Amino acid sequence: MSLYLIERLKQLGVKHIFGVPGDFNLEFLDYIEDDDTLQWVGNANELNAAYAADGYARIKRSLSCIVTTYGVGELSALNGIAGAMSERVPVLHIVGVPSEALQQKHALLHHTLGDGVFSHFSKMSGPISAAVAKLHTSPTGTDGLPYEVDRVLSAALTQCRPVYLTFPTNLHHVKVPSKNLLTPLPHPHSAPLTPAALLEEHVTDSQAEKELELVVGEIQRLFEASHDPVVLVDACAERFGVEGE
């Protein structure tokens, strides 16, 4: 699973990964260190890593990645991730979390609130993420994990916003199918058909297209009715790669 995730990042042009080592992400970091084309950029703290990832995505005009550890690490990155959400910057936030077995036992662990609940911090990241994926073993096994990775990556690329991915320690070395790697992910500047909130409500393609037509039609109406139209272009033109248009 670690190799699949790394290969997807490389396909998207990621060459540097930012973050801070922690006990729940160390084995994943070994895979990064072993890759000759990736460079691990260790930061003094997670907030610095988040801002570095934000800047990296802006300069590269593509996805960036930050790796933190459960609880104490990921929370320190939230200010930077929230900024990326506001500024529409695609950042993949990978959080190493305790094994599924420990979570299911509601184990008393460090970096928790001591109540056996392991979802507190992921809920905090939800509102500042275009998509959230909590990798886990399903009743049918682990073959679905690549689809979850691709889902959040696609959301980051099409919405130009950060996404959140938890990676339990027991899944770092698990074998998963590699066939999805043959299917390209969306272009980093692909504009979404509809806002993220609507996508979460399972809006169909036809509904999304209808919404898009209504918006474009209203813009056209206002433009044609204006005597001296002025179009104000903001940073989103750069985020979605449409400066030429």
UniProtKB/TrEMBL annotation:
The organism's place on the tree of life at top rank: Eukaryota
Thiamine pyrophosphate enzyme N-terminal TPP-binding domain: residues covered: 4-108
Alphabetical UniProt keywords: Decarboxylase, Lyase, Magnesium, Metal-binding, Thiamine pyrophosphate
Keyword Membrane: no
InterPro entries, sorted: PDC/IPDC-like (IPR012110), THDP-binding (IPR029061), Thiamin_PyroP_enz_TPP-bd_dom (IPR012001), TPP_PYR_PDC_IPDC-like (IPR047213)
Entry-linked CDD domains: TPP_PYR_PDC_IPDC_like
Coiled coil segments of this chain: none
GO MF assignments: metal ion binding; pyruvate decarboxylase activity; thiamine pyrophosphate binding
Protein name per its UniProtKB record: Thiamine pyrophosphate enzyme N-terminal TPP-binding domain-containing protein
